[in-house]
Design goal:
3 domains, homodimer, eight-stranded mixed beta sheet, Ubiquitin-like (UB roll), six-stranded mixed beta sheet, 27 strands, alpha/beta, Metallo-beta-lactamase, Chain A, Rossmann fold
């Protein structure tokens, strides 16, 4: 019997940054790597987050999914776990210790812990999941415990990098596993799937260690309190801040629930090395001289309800920005967040803080490889075929062009989008069919129920609001009786709009006087049209207009 | 009699990028420099643009405004012209030829040309406006015909740089007027007001000329059509594209009304040097081999209705992206536009084009000075006092810190926001009173009528939409008669929400059954509250809910 084809089914991460999810199939056996979410663009109004469209897997009733395997604990790789576990109850999970800890929290919240088992492995371990043998290898990124996989298949090894950078002086001392990558190449790599996030950035992403020098400068000069905002999961950064605090005789306070929880977990797992007596309770800050404290805070993306956002607008329960504070924003804005982040920084300046951010000083570096590292990855792994993953289309194209430059033949380099299946057999790798692979919007408890129509209505409402007019009409005379009731929001400030409201009433009276047809629907349409036209003429705005006619 | 104080009243451009406007007063005499607009942030829902709050000037009835003087023709310096001329009819305008041409177009559209006179001057000219003598000097920026001013006052020269960079190899050959700046310093400069846009960027902004080399590479390699998107007013870039077209034997077509109009004006003024026979009509593109054309297009900020945006979504009337096209995006995203610009680029890739943008290749450079140039400006001008202008608060702070580093004493460096007045007399310069200086939103034909309440309502509507329920209640029984009418938009897709609608009806029935009070207002509130609660429980969304009760 012929060996089954290998099918690689990308359900997220291709043609977009975030929402990583890929299925690997051999005949009727499959595994899933990562189940991430994506954050909505500014114009995806009201959408909370976006999960992969995994309809295809649900419809493949013949398929046995043997496991869900994770590269690392970031939301764009784990955020959809509850949705996926809920859909595929009983399928076990495989993750490194920190990732497993983060997944457990998510699944407990979703009351789904009973529906899966979490198998913990360490970087370097070999996993046997269904017919797949996965050799995990450590990679450096901006959260600890990250791995990539060498997936053994009947047609050669598929190397999946996960998110990576080549950091030769990582803060936790755990260097990239060059040896394993080279060893894969010795055995023959069929396909390399590699992180494309920074594919349009030349050079080499600086090591996390360069931040130590920047911190030193800031800590040496700061006379008052120091606050450092970063991602709650950036454990190595927290380690760097703790180290700097020790060097400069400051105590470390933590503000922000998620960061506190992550620190607890990381200390328990031995990933974060901070002595007990370095910590200071946020409530004891008042009793400590400003020059003796560092406060780590959440909200580096300008989220209004996180600590930094609250400090910027003076809405934090216990903390306030004081003149003389030095605030380090140790993060880059995620694309789309620029306005919010910079507005937060401006507001902190306004409250008297000195704010340090990149490029003022190198207080953050990317967690993703740049072009030189991408070249190194290709040359270490020497794959026959190349599939750039994890990036917008522009990044995938740039990464693909780099692969061709690096000597991989053009027809062995694929640029695919979500849902475009790659097939491999003894003849090689090629593009196969296309399966669904779009956005599934999550809004409140609704999954996928918000589509274009609702978003388009929200756009109109966001721009010009609405007006509803309810009026009583005398059945016999066809004339309005009494005053119409007008409800409007997001259009004009009603209290200052008496004249406009008079125009509304006059327009209704005009329409009723000239409408011979007593058909309610037609009369209603005419009222709505006439009022829309009048409002546009008066205000050059186009609110949604509705009318309700009560005949009496 | 004591000489009157000099008052500098910033009404825009401090603490924000865009919307530049400054008044200079000596006693009862005043001039205005620039009257710009600002583009709304992504969360200023429905706002078309923002103009300076010049209430203060309107209220100073004692003040004679002698002239409105422009540094250059960009929207953030000229966009509010019609509003200002309308408010101060009869006040003459002073501008360089291109700026004057652009202002004339604006004022003709607003039917306000009769209410002002436009006086045209050239860089280097001296203007006498009221009691002020302004010595104009040429600066390099990203539109031709830019000037700064040395403003002679009883207390020394105030140097206002306008937007500038020090480009030593400008495309039009017009170099920065170092001599004039040095001469000011010889005569003694009281205050330097300088562009802060790039104050957090180290180094020196590259010359416009570096783009020639990047264009050469792209033109040499492109086999099909080349399209170049840039700002319609970036005349020097259009010159560079025209030059490259000539070098590589391609004809130049223009798509986009505003760009076409600007090219006509710039050629008439002798600012753009392109031979007639280089141009090709867009309608003749079909008859010309792809390798022989360059098309200049508008829409480099991803604006959906400009040419590039239409090409990206296949909605242009005559043009289509073809496989093999090379598209150069010769612009950087304006802060806040990143998502839209990169989405446009991704869509162009999807349609088969090869898209070149910075950082893929250096096809755009900033029009504003970076930190080395800022240091040079300070050392050329050697001012006694320094006021950073044109930047968000974070840029003003960085520029101020640079000034202190450069040797200007800390207490002679001001960081001011819009509305914070600077006063000068024989004792020096100091911060004075604070006058209004906020945002005035323009939405449709409404100026300043949209405030926080309306924007907040738009936010709620954008997130979760609304629901209105109109129901008939029997006066005697207090029970609902017939079916309620439900209107909802932006909340759920109604056709798929039968169950939810049943819940609405049941909730109403429950409330009516349990409400003893027949007071309409109270019953109404209870219905709204109960339905809001039910909808939140069912959907975890919070639409605005209204009810209308018709008693019969």
């Amino acid at each position: 019997m012929a060996k089954p084809k290998l099918r690689i089914v990308p359900l997220g991460g291709l043609g977009e940054i975030g929402k990583n999810m890929t299925a690997f199939e051999l005949g009727n056996d499959a595994i899933i790597i990562d189940t991430g979410i994506m954050f909505p663009a500014n114009d995806m109004l009201g959408v909370d987050y976006i999960i992969p469209d995994f309809r295809y897997l649900l419809e493949r009733k013949d398929l046995t999914i043997h496991g869900i395997i994770y590269t690392h604990g970031h939301e764009d790789h784990t955020g959809a776990t509850a949705h996926v576990v809920d859909a595929f109850k009983g399928v076990p999970i495989y993750a490194t210790p920190l990732t497993a800890g983060l997944l457990e929290v998510k699944l407990r919240e979703a009351k789904l812990l009973d529906h899966t088992t979490i198998n913990v492995f360490s970087a370097g371990d070999i996993l046997e999941v269904g017919p797949f043998k996965l050799e995990s290898f450590h990679v450096c990124h901006s959260i600890p415990d990250c791995v990539g996989f060498g997936i053994n298949t009947p047609y050669g090894i598929v190397v999946h990098t996960g998110d990576y950078k080549f950091d030769n002086t990582p803060v936790d001392g755990k260097k990239p596993d060059y040896a394993r990558l080279a060893e894969f190449s010795r055995r023959g790599v069929l396909l390399l799937m590699a992180d494309s996030t920074n594919a349009d950035q030349s050079g080499w992403t600086p090591s996390e260690s360069v931040i130590d020098a920047a911190f030193d400068t800031v800590f040496r000069q700061a006379k008052g309190r120091i606050m450092v905002a970063t991602f709650a999961s950036l454990i190595s950064r927290i380690q760097q801040v703790a180290n700097a605090a020790q060097r400069y005789g400051r105590k470390l306070a933590i503000a922000g629930y998620s960061m506190g929880e992550n620190i607890k977990m990381a200390r328990k797992l031995g990933i974060l090395d901070v002595p007990d007596d370095l910590f200071l309770d946020v409530n004891d800050l008042g009793r400590t001289p400003p020059s003796k404290v560092v406060i780590m805070v959440t909200g580096s993306q300008g989220e209004p309800s996180a600590v930094l956002g609250r400090l910027a607008t003076g809405r934090h329960r216990t903390l306030d920005v004081e003149v003389g504070d030095t605030i380090i924003v140790s993060a880059h804005p995620i694309p789309g967040n620029e306005e919010t982040v910079f507005r937060t920084i401006n507001r902190l300046f306004q409250r008297g803080a000195n704010v340090i951010y990149d490029p003022i000083a190198p207080v953050h570096v990317s967690g993703h490889a740049k072009r030189e590292e991408m070249r190194l990855m290709m040359n270490l792994v020497r794959p026959q075929y190349f599939l750039p993953v994890h990036g917008e289309l522009r990044h995938l194209r740039a990464h693909a062009a780099l692969a061709v430059e690096s000597g991989i033949p053009q027809d062995q380099v694929f640029v695919a989008e979500n849902g475009m299946v790659l097939e491999a057999d003894k003849y090689g790798v090629r593009m196969g069919e296309r399966v669904p692979g779009g956005y599934v919007f999550v809004d409140g408890s609704g999954v996928g129920d918000i589509g274009r129509t609702v978003i388009r209505d929200r756009e109109i409402l966001a721009k010009d609001g609405f007006m509803i007019i309810s009026l009583d009409v005398d059945k016999k005379t066809g004339k309005m009786s009494g005053e119409p009731e007008i409800i409007s929001r997001g259009f004009v400030y009603l209290r200052d709009a008496d004249e406009l409201m008079d125009n509304v009433k006059n327009t209704i009276a005009d329409v009723l006087a000239s409408t011979t047809s007593s058909k309610n629907g037609k009369r209603r349409d005419r009222i709505q049209e006439s009022i829309s036209r009048m409002l546009y003429n008066e205000t050059k705005r186009r609110p949604m207009v509705f009318s309700i006619i009560n005949e009496r």
